[in-house]
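FAQ
Q: What does a multi-component entry look like?
A: The components come first, one per line:
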Amino acid sequence: MAAHRCGLSLVIILIVSSLTHPSRCDTLTKSNDNTGEKQSVSDALREANADESNAGEEMNERQWQSTDVELDRSDGTKDSESFRLAPAKDQFEEELVIRPLHSGDIYASFQFRTLWDTDFLQEGQKVSHYRLFPKSLGQVLSKFSVRELHISFTQGFWRTMQWGQPFIPSPPGAELWVWFHHTVSDVDGNWKELTNVLSGIFCASLNFIDLTNTVQPSASFKPLGLGNATDHRFLRYATLPREIVCTENLTPWKKLLPCGSKAGLAVLMKSEKLFHSSFHSQAVHIRPVCQDEQCTNKAWELRQTLNVVFDLYTSGQGKKEWSLFKMFSRTLTEACPLAASSKVYVDITDNPEGELFELSPATPLLSQAVVLGDRRTYSVYDLTRAETFGQLRSFNLLLRWKGDSGDMLRPLLHAERYVAGFGLQTGEIHTVIYNNHPYRAFPVLLMDSVPWYLQLYIHTLTVTSKSRDNKPSYIHYQPAKDRHRPHLLEMLIQLPPHSMTEVTVQFERALLKWTEYTPDPNHGFYVGSSVVSALVPSMVAMNTNFTQDQPLFSSFVPVKEESSYFVRVYTEPLLVNLPTPDFSMPYNVICLTCTVVAVGYGSFYNLLTRTFQVDEPSPPLAKRLANLVRRIRGVPMLA
Amino acid sequence: MAAPLTFLLIVAVTIRAVLFRSSLAEIISERVEVVSPLNAWKRVVEGLALLDLGVSPYSGDVFHETPLIIYLFHFVVDYAELVFMIADGITAVALYLSIQTYNKNVFRKQKYALESDRYPADCLELLRSPKEMFYIPLKVAMFYLLNPFTILSCVAKSTCGLNNAIIALFILCTLKGSALLSGIMLALATYQSIYPLTLFAPALLFLLQRLYIPVNLRRSSFWSFTLQYAFIYVGSLVVITGLSFFLLGSWDFIPSVYGFIFSVPDLTPNIGLFWYFFAEMFEHFRLFFICVFQINVFFYTIPLSVKLKEHPVFLIFMQIAIISIFKSYPTVGDVALYMAFLPAWSHLYRFLRNIFLVSCVLLACSALFPVLWHLWIYAGSANSNFYYAITLLFNFGQILLVSDYFYAYLRREHHLTHGLYLKKEDGTEATLVLK
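Then the predicted structure of the entire assembly, as C-alpha cells:
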C-alpha cells in the first residue's frame, strides 16, 4: 500500500515539478529587487544568524533559499530594526505549545504559519513567484481554483473527556474539506482531480475519495478565511476513517516547511517518537486572510499543525516527568532561520505558584491568551533569542511533577457515538451530546455522513434531552443513492443546560456485491465521525480583534463575538459489520441458480413443445434378435 | 353462500387484528421473506417522512413505491392496518366471485360438450360435478385469506397485498367480461409492479373467447378488438403515469421504481433467485445476466398463450405463478396469490405426479427460512450459502408445482378428447408419454 501511494505521489510530483520548473530562476531574480521581502527574511535571518552563522548552508534541500540568504547578507546588514515598521510580504512563524494534561499525558502542538502575499483574487493570473510558500501547494491552489483547503491526517482518537479540547480538532483517519472559487463550473471534476493530486503530495489514499463518500454540508463547514461564501455547492467534504497515518505521510508534510526538518522546531519531528504516541494528528490548512485590520493586504495563509499526545506516564514507570528529549529524542538548538518568530509555550495555568510542577529552565517571559473560552497562562521560550539556549547551545525543556493533579477536565461540549442492536440486519446509531455548562443552553450543529450501504430511516430519528423530545429546529437531510452518494444529515439542536442529548436513528445493513467488500470484510466497515459544531458560551471575554499579535494556536478560528467561541467536536468513527456472501462461491452460485432457472425452462419447454402420445415401447433386444432369426427361418414371429 | 364467506372474512380479520396487536407484528415486518425493498411498510413511512421534510422520496434509494401509493397513504397512514385488511378482503372476495363465474362458464361449456356428445365415453369420471364445484370459490377465498403467507404479508403491511388486490380485481373484471375495467385494472397492476403486463395476453384471449371472436390474424374483428383493448390498456397506463407526474412534478419515480425493479441494485436477501446470484456475479457479465433473468419472466407469455389459448384462466394462473417465481423482488405475498388458485384446479389432482414431494419441499423450506436466516444473521454460525440453498430449493419446489399443474392440465385436456383409458392397437393398456 505504502509503496503504491509513494509511487503515485512520486509520479505526480515529478509531473508537477517538470511542468513548472523554469520558475525557480525567476524567483531569485525577482526577489532581488523586492526589498520589502528581503527585509523580513533578512531580519529573521540576522537574529537566527546571531546563534547559528551557517544556517543557510545546512539547507541543501532548498538551494534557492540559501542563495537568497547569501544575497541578504551582503546588503541586508544595512537595514536596522525595520521589521515591525515595514509590512512583511511573506512571513513564516513557528511555535510549539506544550500542555501537561490532567491524565498525566503531554499534549504537544506544533503550528507553522506561512503567509504568502499574492493577489489570489485575481483570476487567470499565473503565479510563479514562490518564496516560503511550498510551490507544490501553490500550484494546486491556482490550478483547481481552491479558495480554502483543510486536510488532516489523524491516528488515534482525541479523548475530550480526559484531555479537554484540542486547539484544532480532527477526526480519526483523513479529513479533507475544500471550498472552491465560485467561478468553478465543474466542481466535482475539480474535486476528483484535486483529491488525486493531494493523494500524491501527501502520500495518502485520498484517491479513495469519490462521490460515494463526499458530501456538501449546508451549514457545518463555513469558510474560515476571508469572504463569506455561503453557497455550499462549492464546498466538498470527505473523510476516510480507515486511513492509517504513518511516516510516509509525515515526510511530505515536513517538506512543505520552509526549513524542512533541518532547523527550527521541526527537528523534533522524528517519526519513531511521534508515532509512538496515543494520538497523532497532522494537518494543513490553507485559507485567504487579511494582513491588517483594514484588509487592504490579503494573503494566503498556510497553517501546518501537528498535534501529539504522549503517554509518558505509563511508559515512564509511573513517574510524571518529561522533557523535550524524552518526548522527541531531540533537543532544540536553533530557530528556523527563515522564521519571523519561533516560540515554545508551556501551559502553566494550573500551576500559578509552582506547587504542581517545576519547569526548567525557568523563563521570565509569561503570556496570557484566551483559548477556547478560557484564559490560560503560558511560559514562553523565544527561540530567536540566544539566551534561551544557554551555555550548552541546546534547549531541553524539563518538567517535573511534584504533586498529584486531581480534577478531570469537564469540557463544556462533548459528544460520543456508538452502534446499538445485534445481528447483521438492522442497527441503530446513537449519538450522545453533552452540554456541561451549568446554566447556559446553546445550539449545536450535528452533521452525520453515513455511507450508502447503511440505509438510514429518517422517520426513526429521535432527539431526546432530559428524557423529553427535543425537536431539531433545522434538519437538512439528503438520502443516499446506492453506489453514488452517502447520506447527509445535518441538524440544529438546542442543548439544554447541564444535559445529555441523545440522537438515535435506525439503519438497515445492505448486502453488497462480492467485489464491493474491502479485503477484510469481516473486520467491518467504517462510518466517519459525526461532527458537532457549536458556538459555546465563553467563561471569559473572547478576543475578537484577531489581527492583533497573538499566539498562533489561539488565532485559528476567527472570533466574531466576545461571549462565545467556536468549537468543533468529532465523535468516534463507527465500525459496522455487514452481512457477507461467501466469497469462494461465485462459480457455484452462478451454476446452481442457472440450474434452477434451467429446470424451470426445461420443464415448461417440454410441456409447451411436446404432445401426449401413446407409448409404444420397442421390444427388447433379445426378442428383436429372435424375431430376426425367425424371419430368416420363415417361422411365425414372437408377439 | 354469502354466510360462509362472511364468516370466513370475520375469521381472517380477527386473526389479522390479533396479530397486529401482538408483539409479533414488529418481528414479522422485518422478515426478508415477507417484505422486500419494493414493498416494505417501513419504506412507505420513510417516503412519507421524506415528503414531510421537503425532500423528494425518490431522491434517495430507500423508497420505491409508486407515487399513487404515497398519495394513498398520505391520507390513510393512520388507518394502514385497516387498509391492508380491507385489501386482503377485496382480494378474497374478488377471487371468490371470479372463480364462481369461471366455474359457471366451465360448467356451461361442459354441458354443451356433453350434449353434443363430444366427450369420449370413458371420460365421464373426469367431468366436474356441480356438487364438487360448489365449494370451490369458497375454498379459493379461504386459501387466500387463511394462507399463512397472506397473513404474514398483511401483518407486515407489505404493499404486496395492495398489488394482489389490484390483480384480483383485474381477474374479476376480465371474467365478468368488462374490457374497459379489465384494461384499467391491468394498467394499474402494471403501473404498480410492471410484471403483470404479461397478463395482457390471457385477458385478451379470454375477452375474445367470450365475444366468440376467433384468434385469427386475418380477421378484422380480431384486430379491431385487440386494438381496442390495447388502447384501453395503454391509454389508462399513460393517464396513470401522467397523473403521477402531476402529483410529484417530476419523472424521478420512473428510474426509482421501474429502474429499480429491472436493474436489481438492492441485493437484500429474499426468497427469489436474484439476490445471491447478482451478489456473486462477475461485473462484466452483470448486464447480460440481468437481461437474461428479466426476459425469463416475459419469455413464456407467447408460447403459453399459444398452447393455452383455449384456457385463458389457467393461463392467468400460470402467468401469475411465473411472475412470482422469476420476479426480481418476490415475497411470500406473491406466492400466496397464485396458491389461492390451487383449489380451482382440484380436479387435476389425479394427474399430479409429485404433489407430495412438492408440498413437503415447500413446507420444509417455509420452516427453514427463518431458522437459517437466524443462523446466518444473528447467530453467526452459518453463512449466506445456507439461506441461499433454501431459496434455491423453495424456487425449485415452486417450479415443480407449477409445471406439475401445467402437465396435469394438459393431460386432462388430452384425455377429454382421446378418452381416459387408452388402449394400444393390440388392446393392451397404453401409457401416455410426452413426445
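Q: Is there any commentary attached?
A: Sometimes. For this entry: DSSP finds 14 helices and 27 strands in chain A.
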